[in-house]
Amino acid sequence: MAKTSSNKSKEKKIDFNDYKYYNNRELSWLDFNFRVLEEAHDTTNPLLERVKFLSITSSNLEEFFMIRVAGLEEQLQAGFSGVDISGLTPRDQLMKISQKTHKMVEMQYNCLENELLPSLDKENIKVLKVDDIDEEKKEFLDNYFQTTVFPVVTPMAVDQSRPFPILPGSGINLGVELEDEKGETLFAFIPLPTIFPRFINIPCEDGTYLFLTEDLLKMHSDLFFSGYKLVEISEFRITRDGDLSIDEDDARDLLIEIESSLKERRTGFPVKLEISKNMGENLRNFLLNSLNLRSDNIFEISSLLDLSSLMEIANLEGHEHLKFEYYSPQPSPTFYGKEDIFKVIREKDVLLHRPYESFEHVMDFLRQAAEDPQVLAIKQTLYRVGKKSPIIDYLIKAAENGKQVTVVVEVKARFDEENNIQWAKELEKAGCHVVYGLVGLKVHSKLLLIVRKEEGGIRRYVHMSTGNYNYITARLYEDIDFFTCKESYAQDVSALFNILTGYSKPPTWKKLGVAPTSLRETFLQWIDNEIDVVKKGGKGKIIIKVNSLLDVSIIKALYKASMAGVKVNLIVRGICALKVGIKGVSEGIKVRSVVGRYLEHSRIFYFENNGLPKLFISSADLMPRNLDRRVETLIPIEQEDLKQRLIDVLNLYLKDNFKARELQPNGEYKRSTRKKSKIFIVQEELMKEAKKKFRKFIKKQEVDKFNFPKLK
After folding, report:
1. 450 Cβ neighbours under 8 A, 6+ residues apart
2. What tens digit of pLDDT does each residue of 140-160 get?
3. Looking at the whole model, is its pTM more than 0.85?
4. Which keywords does this Swiss-Prot/TrEMBL entry list (predicted)?
5. Is 601 annotated as a binding residue?
6. Which residues are catalytic?
7. Is 414 known to sit in a ligand binding site?
């Protein structure tokens, strides 16, 4: 009792609303991108994988400016001076972001110029300059320019009748300074065509020779401005506000409103300008005066702009020795060789861990449902499905086969709006009933419900996941899939679809936690339960694996759990607003971030529950947007072997001593300190385990092999 009173008095003394207890969201995200950048510097990664990591840091940073920095700039312009949970105003945040970002850009180009390009050169992958071009290569480039590039390129003059054009965001542009016959200065632009690769691959037998499209345009710039003296030509790049402005309450047709807003993204206000370090004063001043940018958001670049285009080099064919060893997602022993997937799920719940296990099983589940005469209806949510999708094909086939197909397509999924709108139209055309999301909410939950007529009556089969129904990213993102036909789950999923597609009030959920109605409360309930266990003399433990931790109420609850003596291990890939090592508050909390070959994307929750562990997977991160403004699901995993599997997975993440970085009390992330033990990399271990598990299964029994890659 005395211990409990002491804990209560501690809680009373601490004001958890104090800014000192929280990290800033934007700065925490930048720290994550620094961790990705570390992978580009890491010489233990294959060379082209390092190039890929550098490319990813650039595309990440671009999106960060388009959405997060643009939002802060708008707040600044509106005169908003309120503070975030860490006590920073928009102006404070923008200043700190600028400092960190300029440091990041400097590190990016140091990595490119001093490490990656010289290493590529040694491997006979050369990015050539104009001076490196001999006659044979010049002949090829001249022909390529005349037959392919020149007909597409459109120079844009700027004068009284043609004002400064609204150049698309994120693309490379060439700024041109000219003189006319009278010696007057004129300006023009040449936007690089985006339909061609940035790097031109020059055919050669003795290596891979690449040449930049902008350098090709510079070589032939006289053809665009005949009769004028070309004073200077230099590249620059504008990043624009990319957040869609959608008034959902007034939008009569959400689809039309989003399609209209997508056009605004191409012409949003500028938030960042990258210019060549060698750009002349006249051209530089003309750009700065025309774009009206704060100096903090201007970056002088020493070599090629837009490092995201390095993905073209990273994906070069014929250099497999410079990439990670090929890994083929393994078939699941539970599904492999079984013709009737429904029978497998009737026997027991099934868990898949991708990309270690194959996403083919999910697609095969839907394919079988589309073809099965006993299947009456299919209902599915789609958030990100990609530009090409077998999932869409199977839904269309199901509709053509006379099944009732209902699809909730989230047309507000950021940067996937155009894809999703196109798919929604295709599905509707095929006879599917399509719902374009909900006003005021994004449907982020990953759900597939199949209604089947069987001997005993109607049975419902459910697939729920932490990841999207995208067969491309399923090979790149780490996620958990769960299959069941238990009625308690099926009733909840059916009820949720009724809410999404019709008029129905949320029921009392039997199994699921659902945002925005009950998910936060469910998390808080289980955290409080661990505190109660400790107060009664038991041992409390919480392990959470998520992409982001930002919600203040959850962080406060975790602080209180730590103060009560609950051991808390957090595996947070990206943003983490919680601080560790605060005396008397968070000394019992450890936070680690794993950045590796695959993007960590699953959300797993473990609560010790006094020796009777509770395990959950979820589509939701611990952020206000997920808990308040999205439809999300928390799925309890109750089958004992599946619970143990998730526990084993979490323990492997806590064991990683190479790709894991641990959050320090000062806010920095440091690599896990390895003692004399050998290197342990969780993603490599999970690949090995999946291979070992399937090979062991194959040895035990003969099964028919169908449409899976050969084992490596």
Report:
1. 365, 366, 369, 375, 377, 378, 460, 461, 462
2. 999 999 999 999 998 988 876
3. yes
4. ATP-binding, Kinase, Magnesium, Metal-binding, Nucleotide-binding, Phosphoprotein, Transferase
5. yes
6. 444
7. yes
